[in-house]
Amino acid sequence: MSDTAHPPIVLLTDFGLQDGYVGVMKGVIAGIAPGVPVIDLSHEIPAQDIPSAAFLLETSWSYFPERSLFLAVVDPGVGSSRRGLGVRSHARFFIGPDNGILSGALDVDSEIRSIENAKLWLAEVSKTFHGRDIFAPVAAALAAGTPFEQIGPLISDPIRREAPPPTHTSAGLVGQIVYVDRFGNLVTNFPPELLRDGETWAALTPDGAEWPFRGTYADTAPGERCAVVGGFRRIELSINRGSAAQVSGLGIGSAVLLRATSQ
Amino acid sequence: MSDTAHPPIVLLTDFGLQDGYVGVMKGVIAGIAPGVPVIDLSHEIPAQDIPSAAFLLETSWSYFPERSLFLAVVDPGVGSSRRGLGVRSHARFFIGPDNGILSGALDVDSEIRSIENAKLWLAEVSKTFHGRDIFAPVAAALAAGTPFEQIGPLISDPIRREAPPPTHTSAGLVGQIVYVDRFGNLVTNFPPELLRDGETWAALTPDGAEWPFRGTYADTAPGERCAVVGGFRRIELSINRGSAAQVSGLGIGSAVLLRATSQ
Amino acid sequence: MSDTAHPPIVLLTDFGLQDGYVGVMKGVIAGIAPGVPVIDLSHEIPAQDIPSAAFLLETSWSYFPERSLFLAVVDPGVGSSRRGLGVRSHARFFIGPDNGILSGALDVDSEIRSIENAKLWLAEVSKTFHGRDIFAPVAAALAAGTPFEQIGPLISDPIRREAPPPTHTSAGLVGQIVYVDRFGNLVTNFPPELLRDGETWAALTPDGAEWPFRGTYADTAPGERCAVVGGFRRIELSINRGSAAQVSGLGIGSAVLLRATSQ
């Protein structure tokens, strides 16, 4: 361990691990910023699924140390006129295409720049792999000490994609499913702070099912529906040892009603 | 390369790589123990399959340098009253839930502690993700120099889950299948030392099949059954370019008879 | 970041990530060459698919810094008499079995050695896992400073497996498909330099389909066929949001005709 160790570069893509794309990005980084650790957040985002990537970034960045540098590339518009963005926010850096993937990193104080300084890119830039040719070299340059303002000019109109926050109605709180994990758990946009102590809560979904709130998976029987505060710090709908997504037919965008069932 | 490089933290979970859980654990580690390398042993353990994780840990730890620190989290009881364990054994450290996953690391000299010192954990501890909130911070604290005794008090009654060793019978040695790899190879609990030189061996399984011993895969024809000493240093039953598990219908727990067929 | 950081060891195998084989190789490396970073190029090469591994190595090595050390293990002949090779080429090192996997790293100036110095291997060498017992220790020894000539004697007859380069015919350029990525994109052996400016190009395949050249995926409609210069710096045949391999029935070895359709 070293006190002078560099904060990590954190990668988030839909490239998968089979075809070497991620490895090549790490090769580019190793050439420009040798010794900087690289951490994989996920490379198994469903192809072109920007909302799922944005959700993972939004719920994960705070667990990484300050000065970490996030490189998020889900990029269906690669090679078109879409901009690339660099964001300084929450004492961390975020790099990626301007398509909403960085939405969860933006706040009112964010410094947002358009990536335009080609001196920081690979000499040859393809039209199909900016993760390797533009974003990785820019991230590595920042990690190696290039001042943030050198990546390009300030902008103020990044594309934002945010699920609307839960709303209060007479029936209860109305939110939605914003992510489905690989076990089929249905992750909502309800933060756990909504669950006031001393009340009993349940979630209701459009298929007519009720998901009673439980403290943890171990409190349910196999096959039983429940709502728990999951690993993303959001309320999620789960079926013990089953796939809630498959059983319910629900998915991203489905409405969820949260209400107190008693006091 | 550096002579002062820190031994690695080695991760073993059933979290998969899709949902960012592993990446977030690495973020927590990077914040507490910057510069300590992290190695993935596997994150594709079948969900909640403690025996398979215990087998991988048991057969792998000796290939890592002394002072390596293993963080093994397959944790169906997360959020319940199950303890967390830290083990000093074989000149290495092992961290994980008290459910048998660390069995293969225990020996008569092991120092076993219950993880109870919450000062080493994240400030907010969830009921569903102790890998991130408790186990990763404790492992990182140890890697960063926290004395082992500070994680919690000594205990002497860890849960153990060990397949019984092979037994001698008049028909031959009786063992069992303890792991199935992704190619469908059936890994037994027979160590290679059982194969005395100068004898010809075969394995027999309850489906009536015989698996003649071969030195290596290259000695068999496609589709042919064989028994070989595989990568885990155990005798395994294999079908060249096929899935032994699928063809035979055998799996973890199936009995295997090993006998000398001639001299 | 450190100016004295060691170039990475880059791993390429068909071992998958489930069974811990790759993690154990990294453990061996960490014991011999502590502090040397390890990068995964891919471990999801289809089992025993040497041509696909050779293609990834050939198209990837130049993106890694000089003195990087590539460890490529797709090894159906493990335990037989096949040699192991170490290659110094392109200011980098390449280690792997002598079965053609390193073909794309060889050039006229390559220094090629047969791995024979058992002092650099693990004390116990299995017949089924030379990646762990021979190749990883040799790679780590080189990374730790062992002179290259100590791994074994010079040889001049490595096995080569190279797809023939595209040939000119009266109908156009004839090449072939050399790799299929996980999205079903069909990667050819046509380098982008073949596409002269000012001409319009299309690819034709034996199923009668025509694949018009486009600058980028974003220029096509969903379901539309196109040819693009993909991430491997080769022309590839693609169907927007579909699998070109599945729709066309084409695969590795299928012929592709490239011709200018107008000026």
* Order of H and E elements of chain A: EHEHEEEEHEEEEEEEHE
Low-confidence stretches of chain A: none
What class, by secondary structure content of chain A? alpha+beta
Indicate the proportion of strand residues of chain A: 25-35%
Q: Could you give me the name of the CATH homologous superfamily of the largest domain in chain A?
A: S-adenosyl-l-methionine hydroxide adenosyltransferase, N-terminal
* Broad shape of chain A: elongated
Largest sheet of chain A: 8 strands, antiparallel
Please tally the β strands of chain A and state the result. 14
* CATH architectural type of the largest domain in chain A: 3-Layer(aba) Sandwich
Furnish the topology, listing elements before pairings.
3 copies of one chain form a homotrimer.
Chain A lengths: L8 E5 L7 H12 L5 E5 L7 H11 L8 E5 L10 E6 L2 E6 L13 E4 L15 H14 L23 E3 L2 E9 L5 E3 L11 E5 L5 E3 L12 E5 L5 E5 L4 H5 L6 E8 L1
Parallel strand pairs in A: 1-2, 1-3, 3-5
Antiparallel strand pairs in A: 4-5, 4-6, 7-8, 8-9, 8-14, 9-13, 10-11, 10-14, 12-13
Helix pairs in contact in A: 1-3
